[in-house]
Amino acid sequence: MEKKGVTRRQFIKYAGATAALLGLSEAVIPDIARALEELVTTGKPPVIWLQGQNCSGCSVSFLNTNYPDAAEVLLDKLSVRYQPTVMAAAGDVATGVIEETVAEMEGKYVLVVEGPIPTAEGGEYCTFGLEKETKDLDGNQVPKDKPIYDWMKEVVPGAAAVIALGNCASFGGIPGANAEVTGTTPVMDIVAEIDKKKPVINISGCPIHPDWFVGTVLDYLINQRVPDLDRYKRPKAYFGKLIHENCERRAAFDAGLFLEDWNDANPDMKLCLFKMGCKGPVTYADCPIRRWNSARNWCVGANAPCHGCAEPTFYKDLSPLYEPLPDINFLGLTPGVDTLGWIASGVTAAGIGAHYLYKQLGKREDNGESEGGED
Amino acid sequence: MARIVTIDPVTRIEGHLRIDVEIEGDKVVDAWSSGTMFRGFEMLLRDKHPWDAQQVTERICGVCPLVHGTCASYNLDDAMGVDLPDNARVIRNLCLGANFIQSHVLHFWHLSALDYVDIAAVVQYAGTDPGLQALKGKIAYLVESRDAYPFLPRYESDDYLGDPELVTTLVSHYVQALEIRKKAQEMLTIYYGRAPVFVGTIPGGVTAHPTVGNIAAFRSVLDEIRFWIDNVYVPDIVTIAKVPEFAPFLTAGDSGGNYLAYGGFDEDSSGSEKFLPPGYILGNDVAKVMDFDEQKIAEYVKHSWYTDDCGERQPQDGKTEPDVHKKGAYSFIKAPRYDDNPMEVGPMARMLVMAGLELAGKQPERLMALIKSLGLEETINTLVGEGKFGILPRHAMRALECKLIADQMDVWLDQLEPGAKIWDKKGKEIPGESQGQGLVEGPRGALGHWITIKGKKIDNYQCVVPTTWNASPRDKNDNRGPIETSLIGLPVPDPENPVNVVRCVRSFDPCLACAIHVIHPEHNGVKEFRVV
User: Fold this and answer.
1) Which of A173, A180, A296 sits opposite B189 (nearest CB)?
2) Given a cut of 80, is residue B447 above it in pLDDT?
3) Which listed residue, of A53, B33, B463, B486, carries a Cα 20 to 30 Å from A227's Cα?
4) Which of A79, A262, A290 to mutate to test the interface with B (most CBs of B within 10 A)?
5) E strand or H helix at A127, and its extent?
6) Nearest chain B CA: its distance from A354 CA (Å)
7) Highest mean pLDDT pick, A27-36, B41-50, B454-463
């Protein structure tokens, strides 16, 4: 193994970091080390990473991963064959890699899709590479752009699993707010159109937290199964807890201490940002515990409200982002914001159940067995 | 015989870009660029709360959301008549500076270096450095197992750097650079919460207070990054610029000699004093920097898929109504021109404007002092003499700018006052009707946002972005845009491997996420095309 550039000691180190990332006990480290070692021996799992109506924010956020870091993921863990932001190849040399992988690695590659798929007008709103058929609007012979919608039809059937990366790939997100024009469609709906049984995992967030993505990929590779998902196909390990319930400023909410002027934001006071539009009470993600950018900070930590970017309702149905959530119905009471604190503290057992708020916002039909997250 | 070569996708940039070049003999004789994806920002912002603009426009681009968020904040400040507190101005400078660092480092190493370095040469490394030996082990295994994705395959070329010692060192710096850009993002989260896509700047100021503790934390990361810029980034650029095989790229890839900077990083509350000075240069006459006047910007559409009525307008009065069957059109990008001249924007434009002002004695020597200290004065003088600045100077200017900004951030940290105001309440008082304008410099160049508020809601929101300037098509006088011009004459000995074309395009750091706005004839709605 050492001549392959990786020592057993390094495997144990990776395994320890991976166990921590997945929230597992140290007892499983030897198992993980063995699994990781096998991955290298049998060849790294191939990944095709397509970009739809994306902004590359999730690619950039992925580069912020720590344990393992981006170089380890790219060199040691995965065979990232097509990734437009980092790959050396361009043009037909790049798209040729997709075609090769689909032909040679059927059933073995993981498909990552960053950004949703526009379907209006034959998918012309997002294209890359060239179609075999090459005629322009006037019938002249020219190289014609190939829609990502067509790429999906070729790449999805042979994928072992599909990971939708980011809120927009998962649910439509920001480009989804203009879906009536471009036909922006969540990746899971496109996949279902092609193969109803193909497993899809939604890593939400705008952008993703790198741990949510890297942790899920490693979990999938080590355990060879799709992790527990909530009704929106998000891994429960990362999207199972309400931000509001784990917020470091929850005490201020319960005490009715709300931030109303940013100049009053004495760093020692930790005022609640509910009145400034915080969407923590309706957002399932582990940001308060995991924090961002090597755990250095997170949105609320910077005195700014959560915008709910991990939720299917982001962005359109959570706008205006800096206005308080509409009055919330707690057990038949509809308190104003000023009385919210003590009411909420009185019903902490129920928390602010997400189901209440989804009903209040009334935007998303319940189509699964369980509620979003584990409230 | 002429031959058209299509490169689609152009990778290692932000977004979806297609480049077509016409090659005659072994040289490019003509070039076209097109953006191939769009979303619809202007439409989804219409009738929204003005504060949403800051969060939504950040999602235009995931590589520099911070620039759009900052620009939107200045735009909204302007619309609401905000009196920006000094603490807020300085924190915005610090975080924007951190984003410059992460973007410039990402661009040189992760988006560009693979065009110059033969990563497979690492296998021949014969040195004894244990870190480099370990790297060799990994790369050798990948190459032997024929699974060196995503670094191979690539366009093949005879002139990749192949010296094993040098290449192995540079590849190890590629890995270090991943850590440095990550740390640059960590640094800005001290005030902005998280990155990319952050939350700390709002209309009226910023959300987080400076404290003695967080200033020290910021400085400790900054010191580490500055050390790396001084000892790795800048020296590596100088090393590559001096490789004899790359000498043609000192002048090849010149965009035509016109440069424009709006100016960036306010040094006082009026915004009149800026760390990166505004100005423009025509015909590579660096010694003659002229004053920037935004009224001289106009957009043309003769070769763009818009009705003729959209042409010859200033951005504030911009109109965008497409006509996809228009004869002679080949791009969704309009052609912005300054006084009818195509202009390159970005680090090269800013640094040449700064150099020109310093040479004329209008600014204290900062850039020229740095250039002298690096022993590059002669090279610069030669380029000025030849009247051409090509691909390598574009990379070098980016690195020098990165150092100047990182050093200045240390000065800005000293200007923070714990306990003083960070926000002006007027930011939250939305006027019934108002207009705003925000002009900033981002890593890729001059960026402008414009807002019209009616009934306390967004009536119209416009962004004119750096890549629109650089990747614009021909204008009403049939003058090519800067990237198109830069490609003309480039040697392409092997049309199957047009590595020089992508080297040149990438040197501009194009960002396709940047947007133009389109009324679609069939849907009659406002759309936004992502363009180069």
Assistant:
1) A296
2) yes
3) A53
4) A262
5) strand A127-130
6) 23
7) B454-463
SS3 B376: coil
* pTM given for the model: 0.89
SS3 labels along B115-126? HCECHHHHHHCC
Please, what sign has the CA dihedral across residues B118, B119, B120, B121? positive
Cα gap B378→B523, rounded to integer Å: 57
A300 CB near a chain B CB, below 8 Å? yes
Query: Does A94 touch chain B if contact means CB atoms closer than 8 Å?
Result: yes
Choose among A70, A130, A305: nearest Cβ to B8. Answer: A130
Instruction: State the pLDDT at residue B517.
Output: 32
Q: Which residue of B has its CA nearest to A293?
A: B186
Would strands B201-202 and B457-464 be described as parallel, antiparallel, or unpaired? unpaired
CB-side exposure of A224: number of CA atoms within 13 Å?
A: 6
Inter-chain CB proximity B39 and A320 less than 8 Å: no
Q: What is the pLDDT of residues B125-182, one digit of tens each?
A: 999 999 999 999 988 988 888 888 899 899 999 999 999 999 999 999 999 999 999 9
User: What is the model's pLDDT at position B17?
Assistant: 77
d(CA B488, nearest CA chain A) in Å: 20
Task: Select from A89, A73, A81 the least CA-distant residue to A49.
Answer: A81
Residue B390 has pLDDT above 50, yes or no: yes
The number of angstroms, rounded, from the C-alpha of A7 to the middle of its chain's C-alpha atoms is 32
Given a cut of 80, is residue A229 above it in pLDDT?
yes
Active-site annotation of A, residues: 55, 58, 168, 206, 244, 247, 272, 278, 287, 299, 306, 309
Q: β-pairing, B335-338 with B297-300? A: antiparallel
φ and ψ at residue B264, rounded to 5 degrees: -145, 160
d(CA B72, CA B450): 8
CB-based contact (8 Å) between A192 and chain B? no
Show the DSSP H helices in A84-178 as ranges. 91-104, 148-155, 167-171, 173-176
CA neighbor of A99 nearest in space, from A55, A56, A146: A146
Indicate yes or no: CB of B208 within 8 angstroms of CB of A296.
no
B212 exposure class (CB count in 10 Å sphere: 0-12, 13-18, 19+): exposed
For chain A, count helices (H), then strands (E).
17, 9
**Which pLDDT score, from 0 to 100, does residue B292 have?**
94
Give contacts of A173 with chain B, Cβ < 8 Å: 59
Task: Give the closest residue to A352 by CA, choosing from A320, A328, A336, A373.
Answer: A328
Q: What is the torsional sign of CA B317, B320, B323, B329?
A: positive
Question: What residue has token string 């810029």?
Answer: B229
Is residue B407 scored above 80 in pLDDT? yes
Least confident range from A107-116, A332-341, B56-65, B465-474: namely A332-341
What is the per-residue pLDDT across B456-511, written as a single tens digit (0 to 9) for each? 999 988 888 888 899 888 888 989 899 999 999 999 999 899 999 999 999 999 88
Stretch (H or E) spanning B4: strand B3-7
B440 bridge partner residues = B447
The whole-angstrom separation of Cα A9 and Cα A25 is: 19
All residues of chain B having their beta carbon less than 8 Å from the beta carbon of residue A4 are: 137, 141
Tell me, what amino acid is at B301? V
Classify the C-alpha dihedral B398-B400-B403-B407 as positive or negative: negative
Cα–Cα distance, A214 to A220 (Å, whole number): 10
Query: Tell me, what's the pLDDT at B244?
Result: 92
User: Looking at B278-410, which runs of residues are DSSP E strands?
Assistant: 279-281, 297-300, 335-338
Asked if A62 has any chain B CB less than 8 Å from its own CB, the reply is no
Q: Which of B246, B219, B200, B256 is nearest to B406 (CA)?
A: B219
